[in-house]
Structures are given as C-alpha cells and as structure tokens.
Design brief:
- The structure is a single chain.
- The chain is of the alpha+beta class and 57 residues long.
- The protein has one domain.
- Helix content is 28%, strand content 18%.
- The chain is built from 2 helices and 2 strands, in the order ααββ.
- It has a two-stranded antiparallel ribbon.
- Strand 1 and strand 2 form a beta hairpin.
- The longest helix is centred in the N-terminal third of the chain and has 8 residues.
- The N and C termini lie far apart (28 Å).
C-alpha cells in the first residue's frame, strides 16, 4: 500500500482535513476557501498519490 506524508502543510489544510464537513463537500475545497492563495493537487514523484501544493510554488 502506497502512502504520501506531506511535511509542512499550510494550517488551513490541516484545519480542513480535521473539520467535520457534510457528505459531498471536499476538504480540499474547504482549505481553498480558507486561504487567500490557491492550492492544487499534484502527483507524487514515487507513488501514485496526489498531494496539496501551493499554486505559487
């Protein structure tokens, strides 16, 4: 089983991931709504997973 462990994520991502959002609401969208800059999902280099990345990086 492949996993991705992001290090140093934005606090809005951690808040959205731990918040009890209703069914059908994506935590990624909640994190984007909390931030002034946008996030995007990018593919990991070594495993078939997606992780958050700040758009300006």
């Amino acid at each position: 089983m492949d996993i991705a462990i992001p290090i140093g994520v934005h606090p809005a991502v951690m808040l959205a991931a731990s918040s009890p959002v209703p069914f059908g609401i994506n935590e990624f969208d909640v994190a984007n709504a909390l931030m002034k800059i946008s996030l995007r999902l990018v593919k990991c280099e070594h495993v078939e997973k997606l992780v958050c990345r700040l758009l300006g990086d």
